Structure to design on (590 residues):
């Protein structure tokens, strides 16, 4: 990094204004190259692509055809709605499963046990999603561990195929997102003062009313942060739905991949990409509005 | 509820049971993957047929090519390491400059810029991939049309993979480093100036050593996230696939325990990187 840039950021009295301005520009240059070159312009390109149609070889004109195809073709919007629905369901399940564990780590476990449990939550997520999905495939496929176990226990007569169901996709998605729910929940619950819960109990609150009136309002920022991150990651996931859901998975990112890479129909793929981006942004925005959070705070927490 | 409140024995047992079941859920898939790397069968499925190291050291006998003899798999590991090194160096370098920009400089539009820096984290990886692919292709087309230049690095391949991964990993590096720089006591730098240090000397001997834990943390996270990235890479990959793409392709074709072997290798490697981070809890930042 150029020293002059740092110097200019907090200019000593001797350096002139032009020097300071040049320094600021140098300090800003990497960020501008990154944000303009890799984020802003590529997304503009995507928008342009999605709003044109090919009328002749190498001749294009402005049109809404790509978006019209999306509306006219039930397969596409069914996949879209389905992806959104399963993502919301997966986010909800992740929250339900993670909350008691986060509570246990934040409020019940003490000292060494507490830090060990927390680290244990993190460990599986240091391993690639590919590896975790491989684990589920070995566990659930017809010749896999779980169907075999069910036969051995006499529950089923013959091994059942446990892959390629919607429930399988859901399990995989919940599994793969768990970390991003547990961590913000633990930090939100840790900041809750135990004496508030004791006071509520002394005043006659029971488990349910304490949870509803004391714990959840306090943990709301953590719940929002975790849910938003989990939802985004689930919606944009490709690996888990394709491998665990097989041909029936009908995940929207697969449609984008199919248009872009397999069929080389970039205009259609770009329109699908934009629709996914709009859906993702809309639900994140809605989540922030409903819980009264600011985007920057949530991202820093997550 | 919390331990200071009376709890029935049943509720305590139920909680303990629930937590135990949760951790079983977390670890069973990984244990299964590791165990079947040593099963003496050509398919990773029960029953257990005895212990073997064929899937690590096998040289092709009995139709078993182990990890260390599987040239294409090893090459994809090398590709992943190559990409991850580039992404790490770029992300930490740019992340450090960004941290100084956000914490030290004052200019109009700063809050907008800092929000824009977070944006890549909320864009699905698939879309980052296709947008960069489309834009790079337009640039390549433009260079070809105007100057007759054939710019291969703008076609799907490792340079684009590096750019795609960098485009959002640098956000995380920036957050990690800026968080530590924010807590830096500026009087330390002033003391260095009073003692006659130049800007460069103060930066090099005071500020950067203070940032070191965050720099190491950001580097470890960047490396790991690059190594594990799938979505963005899938869209930008050319003819030499990194490991995650290679594994995905093989998993679709069918299962072979050599994938378990390489997975076990990955677990051990990432546990090593995790240990570096765990010993430096202040480095922080755990996001995907």
């Amino acid at each position: 990094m150029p020293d002059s840039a740092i110097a200019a950021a907090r200019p000593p009295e001797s350096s002139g204004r032009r020097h300071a301005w040049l320094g600021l520009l140098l300090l800003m240059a990497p960020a501008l190259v990154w944000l303009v070159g890799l984020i802003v312009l590529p997304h503009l390109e995507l928008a342009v692509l999605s709003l044109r149609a090919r009328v002749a070889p190498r001749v294009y004109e402005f049109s809404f055809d790509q978006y019209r195809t999306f509306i006219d073709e039930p397969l596409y919007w069914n996949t879209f709605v389905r992806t959104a629905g399963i993502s919301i369901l997966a986010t909800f399940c992740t929250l339900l499963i993670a909350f008691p564990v986060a509570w246990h780590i934040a409020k019940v476990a003490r000292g060494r046990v507490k830090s060990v449990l927390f680290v244990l939550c993190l460990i599986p997520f240091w391993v690639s999603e590919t590896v975790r999905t491989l684990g589920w495939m070995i566990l659930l496929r017809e010749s896999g561990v779980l169907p075999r176990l069910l036969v051995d226990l006499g529950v089923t007569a013959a091994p059942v195929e446990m892959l390629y169901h919607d429930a399988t996709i859901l399990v995989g998605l919940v599994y793969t997102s768990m970390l991003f729910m547990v961590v913000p929940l633990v930090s939100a619950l840790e900041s809750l003062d135990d004496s508030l819960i004791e006071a509520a109990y002394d005043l006659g609150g029971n488990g349910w009313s304490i949870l509803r009136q004391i714990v959840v309002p306090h943990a709301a920022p953590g719940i929002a942060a975790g849910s938003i991150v989990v939802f985004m990651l689930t919606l944009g996931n490709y690996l888990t739905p394709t491998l665990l859901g097989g041909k029936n998975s009908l995940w929207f990112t697969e449609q984008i991949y199919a248009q872009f890479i397999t069929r080389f129909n970039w205009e259609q793929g770009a329109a699908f990409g934009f629709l996914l981006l709009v859906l993702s942004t809309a639900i994140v925005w809605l989540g922030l509005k409903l819980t009264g959070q600011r985007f920057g705070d949530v991202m820093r927490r997550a | 509820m919390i331990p200071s409140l009376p709890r029935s024995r049943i509720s305590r047992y139920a909680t303990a049971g629930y937590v135990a079941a949760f951790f079983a859920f977390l670890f069973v898939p990984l244990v299964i993957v590791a165990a079947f790397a040593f099963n003496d069968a050509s398919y990773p499925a029960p029953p257990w047929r005895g212990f073997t190291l064929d899937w690590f050291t096998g040289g092709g006998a009995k139709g078993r090519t182990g990890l260390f003899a599987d040239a294409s798999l090893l090459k994809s590991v090398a590709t992943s390491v190559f990409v991850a090194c580039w992404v790490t160096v770029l992300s930490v370098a740019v992340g450090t400059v960004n941290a100084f920009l956000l914490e030290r400089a004052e200019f109009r539009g700063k809050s907008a810029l800092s929000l824009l820096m977070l944006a890549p984290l909320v864009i699905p990886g698939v879309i980052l991939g296709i947008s960069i692919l489309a834009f790079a292709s337009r640039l390549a087309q433009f260079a070809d049309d105007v100057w007759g230049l054939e710019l291969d690095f703008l076609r799907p391949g490792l340079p684009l993979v590096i750019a795609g991964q960098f485009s959002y990993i640098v956000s995380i590096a920036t957050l990690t480093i800026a968080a530590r720089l924010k807590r830096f006591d500026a009087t330390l730098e002033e003391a260095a100036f009073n003692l006659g240090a130049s800007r460069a000397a103060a930066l090099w001997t005071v500020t950067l050593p203070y940032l070191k834990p965050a720099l190491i943390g950001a580097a470890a996270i960047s490396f790991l996230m690059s190594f594990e990235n799938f979505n963005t890479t899938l869209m930008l990959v050319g003819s030499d696939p990194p490991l995650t793409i290679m594994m995905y392709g093989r998993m679709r074709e069918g299962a072979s325990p050599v994938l378990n072997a390489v997975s076990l290798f990955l677990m051990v490697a990432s546990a090593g990187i995790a240990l570096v981070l765990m010993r430096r809890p202040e480095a922080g930042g755990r996001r995907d």
Summary: The domain at 71-283 of chain B is CATH 1.10.3720.10 (MetI-like fold). The longest helix of chain B spans residues 71-104. The CA atoms of residues 102 and 114 of chain B lie 7 Å apart.
